[in-house]
Amino acid sequence: MKTKSYFFQSFAIVLLATVAFIGFKQFLPKKIFSESAPNSKNVLIDSMLLDAVAKDVKATTKDTLVNKKIVFDPTFGVTFPAEKFEEYKGYQYLISFYEKLYQLETNPESENVRIAYFGDSMTDGDMIVQDLRADYQAKFGGQGVGFVSITSESAASRGSITHQYSGNWKTQSYLNVKKPRSPFGVNGHVFFANDTAHIEWVRFKANTTRFATMLDNPTLFYGKSSNLNGKVNVIIGKDTIVKSLTPNNLVNTLKVSSNSIKGFKADFIKADSIPIFGFNFDDGKGVHVDNFSQRGNSGLPISTFNPAVMQAFNNKLGYDLIVLHYGTNVLNYGTKDYTWYDRSMTKTVNHLKECFPGVAILIVSTADKGTKYDLEMKTDSAVVPLTVAQKRYALKTQSGFVNLYTLMGGDGSMVKWVEEEPVKANKDYTHFNHRGAKKIAGLLYEQLNQGYEKYKALRQKRKPAAKKSPDSTGIKKDSVNA
């Protein structure tokens, strides 16, 4: 009898819970029940984005840029034609990058170019970036995948390099730690081998990816510490090489091998309290592209970068272009007024310019995103307002701009990429599959290359600097500034 009594009690509880759920469902946000909910596994929440949204005062300003003719001042004697806001690309502000490409193209043995590509889940697992890297290396040369963090939530899905690591690393990310124990590295992370009872390790192996079939000049990057006892045991095949860490500077490097190798394992011994950033792999020639992707990132955490540390990184790596590819995590926060994001990212980009003086910056807008309206998937109503805000802060910070939304086809394009053959995006109507990522990389490269070809044509037409001649005082002066 007691068994029957418990059965009916349990049944009654389940029945009441079901009725209560149905009753309350109508008062809950509809998107909780979306039929195309994205996979949110291991997604971190950008704390700075949440703070910015919470502080949004709904302040709007009169748009003075839309109808304004954008006229440029010459750089290196080159001036691109004036642009309208609607079609703004900002090639003028990429001239320093284009000049480095030109020097590389004309002097391939003595020059190299480096790009830092910051992004969110759209570039997770080296998506998009690996294909953009290959496009540049196919034209200008270069071997290697560039900078790779100690740990990564997308390591298992990355095809451009095999990356494994122990689970006892202490990780601090600029997404959710505002005051790290030590400044973040250029990858937005800092790692510590503080588990003194167990060895922290990391292992890398080259795959068959084009232009990355070997690990070229593997080099460890680490920070400053008072611990002078740290060592790294580098295991290459059957050989173990013991290397000491000397954390005297803000950014230090340790070359694992002077040769190109297929793979290695690094064990960190007595390295607690030493900030560890990651490893770099490149042959020092051609073009190198570092992928600094982070799921859940709005771009705002870049404002926490320490300028001195970033300048130290830049002195060692030498960046010529920084790409900021964000937007996915900014959509759908209850507003179509992105004045707050425009304002916050303007400050962020200007801070980045302080961190990397003289380095050109390119803003890549959000891609199209599909959302269900009246049982039909359409372009999310927040996509266009966000792209306009991104274009605004690109212009205000004198950065180049790629409108990814229009490049991929504009209104309704994500729905087509998901539903039409060949399928180029996932069923979340937000992220690209490998085919789509390769297509996006091609579109990005095409626009950047169009600007480069236009730059070369304008460069040929620029006026040469006048020869210096003595004036009446005998002092030589430039009569013309090229």
TrEMBL record:
InterPro entries: SGNH_hydro_sf. GO terms for molecular function: hydrolase activity, acting on ester bonds. The keyword Transmembrane helix applies. Keywords: Membrane, Transmembrane, Transmembrane helix. The chain crosses the membrane at residues 6-24. Residues 468-482 have a biased composition (Basic and acidic residues). Residues 459-482 are annotated as: Disordered. It comes from the Bacteria. SUPFAM superfamilies: SGNH hydrolase. This is GDSL-like lipase/acylhydrolase family protein.
